[in-house]
Structures are given as structure tokens and as C-alpha cells.
Design goal:
four-stranded mixed sheet, single chain, mainly alpha, 4 helices, about 240 residues, Helix Hairpins
Length: about 240
């Protein structure tokens, strides 16, 4: 009877551990999918930021190009006025205006080239970000397919284990010990039981008193005086 009791409790403990593992698998699948979708959202946000940057750079480039065209038109007008200058002083003033406009145009041309280079770089970064989104999306689809494929089997395992656990729990008759076990199972799941090894509760590493060790050996149901777990031995 003593051996049967310990064996029954050991089997129950193993079943509870298997059930906890199976239930963790059920929750782990959706968590993997959620994490994959979070990565996609972050990558998509990078794409949005890159597109906004490209749009801003192009807008600035277009504005500077308009300014450049305007200055070039001004230079043509100023060159036309040079031929109409009525004095050397007026000629020098117009010449100075032409040189200033040319200097401004050179600066604008440099800025436009820089902006165009930045647009190209941003475009390359956007392409890389879009590729990342595509790869992450494919990975997410693979994870979802894997989770969907495995879930029915896991649920079958959970149902089977719950049935076997209900049967194994008949080794714990109604009463104070059964009530304590049920509360512990709700609280710490598979850790509601613990093996006793060398007179120590393996769960909390507390020494089990000699009287309780004897009670376990003769088949009584004993809980750890420190952690409350239902104790069993393995011969």
C-alpha cells in the first residue's frame, strides 16, 4: 500500500508536469505570433519614416531647384542690363549683382546635389526596410501555420492529460489533504507535489521530520510542514 501510494503520487506529479508543459505550448504559440507581428509593425514604421524623409527631401530639392531657376533668370536679366548701363558705376553695381547671383547658384547647385544623394540613400534604406517587412511577414506566416498545425494535437494532449490526472487524483481521498492539494495546484500547478529525497523536500529543501518520513513509508498522505506540498518518495 505504501509503495502504491508513492507511485500514484509520483505518477500524478509527472502528469501534472506534462500538462503544464502542454498548456505552456498552447500559450507560447500565440505569443510567438504576437511577437512576430510586433516586429513587422516596427519594420513598417521604419518604412513610413523613410518615405516621409524621402518626401521631405524631394520637396526641399524642388524648392531649391525653383530658386536656382529664378536666380538664373535674374542673371540673364542682369546681363541684359549690363549693355544698357549708362555709367561705369552702374556697370560695376550690376556686375557685382551678377557675381552674387552666380555665387548663390553655385551654392544651390551643391545643396541640390547633396539632397539628391540623400534621396538616393533614403531610397536604398527604404528598399532594405521593405525587404525586411517582407521577410518578417513570411516568417510570421510560417509561425502562424506551424502554430495552427500543432494546436489540435496539443489540445488533444491536454484533454488526455486532464482525464488521466482526474483518475490519478483518486489516490488523494476527500479531506483536509485533498483540499490543500487542490489549493496548491491552483496556485503553483505541477509544483503541488514534491519528492522527498534523503529526508529533504526537494521543492523547498526543508528537512522532513522522522515522524513524517515514517508516515510516508507506511502509505499516509503527508504534506511538507514548510511549503505545504504533498510529499512522496521514489524507491
Amino acid at each position: 500500500m505504501a509503495v502504491e501510494t508513492s507511485q500514484s503520487l509520483q505518477q500524478l506529479h509527472h502528469l501534472l508536469q506534462q500538462l503544464e508543459d502542454a498548456e505552456n505550448l498552447l500559450t507560447h504559440g500565440p505569443k510567438r505570433v504576437a511577437a512576430a507581428k510586433k516586429k513587422i509593425a516596427a519594420a513598417e514604421q521604419i518604412c513610413v519614416a523613410q518615405k516621409e524623409q524621402i518626401q521631405s527631401l524631394r520637396k526641399t530639392t524642388d524648392q531649391k531647384s525653383l530658386n536656382l531657376n529664378s536666380h538664373e533668370a535674374d542673371i540673364l536679366k542682369l546681363n541684359g542690363r549690363l549693355n544698357e548701363a549708362s555709367s561705369n558705376k552702374e556697370y560695376d553695381i550690376i556686375t557685382g549683382q551678377v557675381e552674387t547671383a552666380k555665387s548663390t547658384n553655385e551654392r544651390l547647385e551643391d545643396e541640390i546635389l547633396t539632397l539628391m544623394s540623400q534621396v538616393d540613400e533614403a531610397g536604398t534604406a527604404l528598399a532594405a526596410a521593405e525587404q525586411e517587412v517582407a521577410e518578417l511577414t513570411q516568417r510570421c506566416n510560417d509561425i502562424e501555420a506551424e502554430v495552427e498545425k500543432n494546436e489540435p494535437g496539443i489540445r488533444e494532449d491536454v484533454a488526455r492529460l486532464n482525464s488521466e490526472i482526474s483518475e490519478a487524483e483518486t489516490a488523494i481521498p476527500p479531506g483536509e489533504v485533498r483540499g490543500g492539494y487542490e489549493r496548491m495546484r491552483i496556485s503553483i500547478k505541477s509544483e503541488a507535489l514534491s519528492e522527498v529525497q534523503d529526508a529533504f523536500c526537494l521543492a523547498c529543501n526543508t528537512k522532513v521530520i522522522a515522524q513524517d518520513c515514517v508516515r510516508i513509508k507506511i502509505g499516509e498522505l503527508v504534506t511538507c510542514r514548510e511549503c505545504g506540498r504533498l510529499l512522496y518518495t521514489v524507491d
